[in-house]
Amino acid sequence: MGVKVSFLPGCNPLENQTILDAFVVAREAGCKAYLVGGCVRDSIDVNDGRSLTNISTKNLRDFDFAVVDLSGCKASPAIALAEMAAEKLGGHFVLLDSLNDIARVVLDDSVLTYLDFAGVTGNIDSDIIRRDFTVNAMVFDDDHPGEILDPTGGLTDLKNRVIRAVSEQVLKDDPLRVLRAYRFAASLGAQIEPQTKEFLREHVHLLKQVARERITYEFFTLMDCPSVASLVVEMGEIGLLEEIYPELKDCRKVTANSFHHLALFDHSVETIPQLEARWMSLPPWVRQSADQELAGGISRRAATKVAALLHDIGKPGTWEVTLEGRHTFIGHDKLGAEMVRPLAEREKWSKTLTRFVERLVLWHLRPGHLFHTGTPTAKALNRFYRTVGDEVPELMMLAFADFGATCGPGLAGEDRARLEKCLVELMDGYPAYIEASKRLPKLLSGQDVMRILEIKPGPIIGEILNALTEAQEINEVLDLAQAEAFVRNYQPIENS
User: Rounded to whole angstroms, how far apart are CA atoms 40 and 44?
Assistant: First the structure.
């Protein structure tokens, strides 16, 4: 028996022509198609005319259908229906899983719509109880347009913002659901109910069975949500973060010290609450940069949060305690950056994502180090901006997150206030640097440098041009004659 519901304005599935067309094709194919999953969840009005996810199904482009063969004689009804739908609707057929009867149709419309068809073994009721969470186990039947099928109580959980596993078994069937629980909690602003949380703790080790690409997609999607701090803390408590990134395990061995009031693992996790707490006070240009896509649907914000979690993974391998009891981690930034590369290969990260996280880990100490010996020179500031480049906004986000999670007695009082002020000034100075850089004339090219010094192409050319730009920025070189003299007198940087 169905449950009566109200749909968001313009979001009744029967008002969507693509969904209507799919139902028509299903009937022509001798099948019964049910709309299932997130598109049902997000279409229901549970909040006085607003969706919990702030998503209108008019803008959704992913629709999932559970397919029942009414004739009882088709071996793969969902695949057959998808092939027919692709032909009738002018889409592209994609076979996803021949063994489990799953296929996709991609429509080349204005939003690139995806229709996924999955065969049902038995009836729709048996299909529902195999779904992951109650909020995703609601079903729309076009024969009953004002109702949904909801045998697991998903509507109540949706209204109460609760994530509840349909059963413990569904987590064993697909261990990625352990991570997906947190992703749905973040996107819906929901809490994971206690029994489900115990299931997650019990089965977190099963993530080892899941393809790394699937884990990467879920984790970065989770981290892109604006408020994940409390959930990340929970993930740390049940061992989920270490299951994803084993490099964090040794961080539990490093204890608190005079600068860090938290042990290293807890400090790393705390960077996420600190980053999110600071988010709205960051300048608009920083937030705009972080919201941009970095690679493959992953935002720079999500990648920065992951870099924050990993920024100190080099510390366990460099940890020493002096006779005076001082904790040192010399070179942990470089070691941490070196550890990112094999981690990224294991997790199947793109080259762009790998380089971004690697650079943030390598540079995470630089903002603070600029001020260790007093006010930095204009030359030092410009070199920082030029070296870090487009990653300045995200590196400053990481710097503030790291700073906020570092509250030991060694960084307190006036010292803390001074460093806070310096970091803000460093961040605020970047837009002015960019504007000044745009006004700098290009006095010499690489070809000019080779002609003046009578040398062949090589790394030294870039080194000289960078040094020349630096000299221009602080007004040591103002015209072409001075630029040529600078090149002739240039002394290569000695490698230490």
Answer: 7
